[in-house]
Amino acid sequence: MALLEIKEVSRRFSDLVAVDNVSFSVNAGEFFTLLGPSGCGKTTLLRMIAGFDQPDSGTITLDGIDLKNTPPEKRPIHTVFQSYALFPHMTVEQNIAFPLKMAGQSESEIKTKVKATLDLVALNDRAKRYPNELSGGQRQRVALARGLVNRPRLLLLDEPLGALDAKLREQMQIELIALQRDTGVTFVFVTHAQAEALALSHRIAVMRAGKIEQLDEPDRLYGQPKNRFVADFIGNVNMHDATVRTIGDTLTLDLGKLGKVVAPLRKNQSLKEGMSGAFIIRPEQVSIRAASEPSGDPNQFVGTVNDFLYIGDVTTYIVDLPDGARIEALLPNSAPGRAKFFELGDPVRVSWKAEAGAFLDS
Amino acid sequence: MRRSPLLWFSVAGVFAFLYIPLIVVVVFSFNDSKLNAGWVGFTFKWYQILVNDKAMIDAAINSLIIAFTASFLATLLGTMAGIAMYRYKTRFLPFMTLTPLAMPEILLGVSLLLFFISVLGTESLSLFTVIIAHTTFCIGFVAIIVRARLTGMDESIFEAARDLGATPWKTFRIITFPLIMPAVIAGMLMSFTLSIDDFVITFFTAGVGVPTLPLTIYTMIKIAVTPEVNALSTLMMLLTLGMIVIASRVAPGFLEKSEHIGEDQ
Predict the structure, then answer these.
(1) A30 and A165, same domain (yes or no)
(2) ipTM of this complex prediction, to 2 decimal places
């Protein structure tokens, strides 16, 4: 049985439907992420799970028990807030001991658990400090420790890495994964940062306008997005309007003025000839070479380099195609001593294999 | 950076303006002369007279009873009002609570007098009515200080407490109250000082039986300003000063800028 079950939950705020008939379940031990742009309803959903808000309809059950009449303090669910919400008048130690005290545990028990948790987040030397004497990363770790110390059934994390700088964020991501694994606590994580979601989660629910667009494992979400929104929201993607011409073992798609491409036919995809939709391909699946060099790929176009973004490990080339469309191709800079393969205006050939890319009907 | 002498001069001027009259009162309370002009010699005489002045002592006791009770009640109600204003963001509540602050005292005095006479009867004017009146005009001050303290504080602190297992009452006791403590103390102190030296509203609501210190002093100086008033003023000054010292001990952060109780985390 699933640990947390969200069933047909809706929440309206006057004229806005924040959460629209959402259903999903989270398994014990899972790192589950609600991903979506701001205003998609993910935080509202989180607040309803924590008990700060009530659904207008639908049920939220934990271990099979309806949480409807359980106030936040009675739920075995703790939250790590975006602002950390540390108690400013209490030391690190007192902050972490708070949930244990509220649970009425004995002094000795509290002492042992606080000590163990301080070890877990490597904050032993900060035990007597006040929150305002800590760095952002340290506050973050105190908030996590406080949320985990009493081993809740569920830990909710509301954009906990949002306030950290890029370097620290990456480090905290690694720590989060380790913490989740070591404690075995189920995490429900809310974020708008897709890369963070992909890196951390076992499963991700992509939300938009109060609904779940797709719920999948990270690699499936990235590799087989269900629709244009998900494809565009997760990672970078080249997208072109397309019409289905023929359906066989593979698909032939008409890209208008650009001509035809071959794309793989996905399982469970019911398509009809003449159907219109979008052809998508990830930049790293697009090969790029000088226009004079031939390519064996069935899909290829010649264009000119319009721009390139040198990131360090990779360079993204933006290529103008004859019909005015643009395509991005990613080239790893793995060859030592060589960073730039093409100049602006160079004629180049972009190509990809028959199994790359996909057709989306919505 | 070097500050201009003009700036120093104006600072000194303002402080002189504020404190020299107070110092003069203290000095003359020890002056062995019936006239408040020129130093004659040192004496404790006026303090002796003051201590033996039954009317003055009665008035002082009245004033203290009123100030303690009214500031306590105003702090209780004002704190609740301040928290409510923070939590429920209505316009109505601040409007209703804070309007009496802007109202002319004389208006408040007259309206309270009319209210007491018409509702409780002419015989009702007493210590009780003065306490009610003082509480009324102090609530707003406490509320505004408490709300200022809460404003800008991270609201999720209070949610976090609930989330981690604290009932609403425990959240108030362990989280909210310690955080607003300096404001509560400041509010109580302010109410106390406002109450103990209030003249106008007291004048309307006290009736004849309840002279307070300000009322008694006013009656005295109508006849003649004796150094006894200076002695009394000196004692009141000491009392106020003592309260500020106590407040800064009880609520660290009351005098200085708040550090680890701040909102910037």
Answers:
(1) yes
(2) 0.83
